[in-house]
Write a structure and sequence with these properties.
Number of strands: 7
Largest sheet: 5 strands, antiparallel
Number of helices: 2
Order of helices and strands: HHEEEEEEE
Strand content: 25-35%
Oligomer: single chain
Number of domains: 1
Low-confidence stretches: none
Length: about 180
Amino acid sequence: MRKNQQQKNKQKGFTLIETLVAIFILLVSTTGPLSFAQSGLRASFLARDQVVAFYLAQDVTETVKNIRDNNSLNGDDWLLGLNACLDPNGCKMETGQALNIATCSADPCGPMYYASSTREYVLSPGIGRSPSRYTRTMYLKEIVPDREAQMVVVVEWDSTFFSERRIVVQENIYNSVSARP
């Protein structure tokens, strides 16, 4: 009779070691896919931030080319209105309908503000504008007087998962209607 009772006691449930092994297997099988998902999310956030930074840099580049072209068509100095950007500290530029250019007091310029109503990045705080993670500084240097200038746009931001990040866009612009000797 005792043998029957001992056999029944052995078959009643899992031992502590069996339970711990089962929990360990369960943890290992769920941790792997979760770490892959986390690294995928991290990469997508970085890609989103890089796209926004590149568009902010491209926006300034296209605005400067537009100013250059308008100046040339009007017969003005080709860099008229961009004098603030010739400063060694660079300049900050608000593009769009209200063109605003200001010399930076420090390198880099202060943060840009995100206007949620218009979904655009602007220079000054205001109602409905919150500080963004992005700073944008543009440097302009005349290489060949009245013919060629080097434009460098630096966009920096604090990333959620990484340290401070930056994108640098450099382009040479030319005076298409330069004075001929």
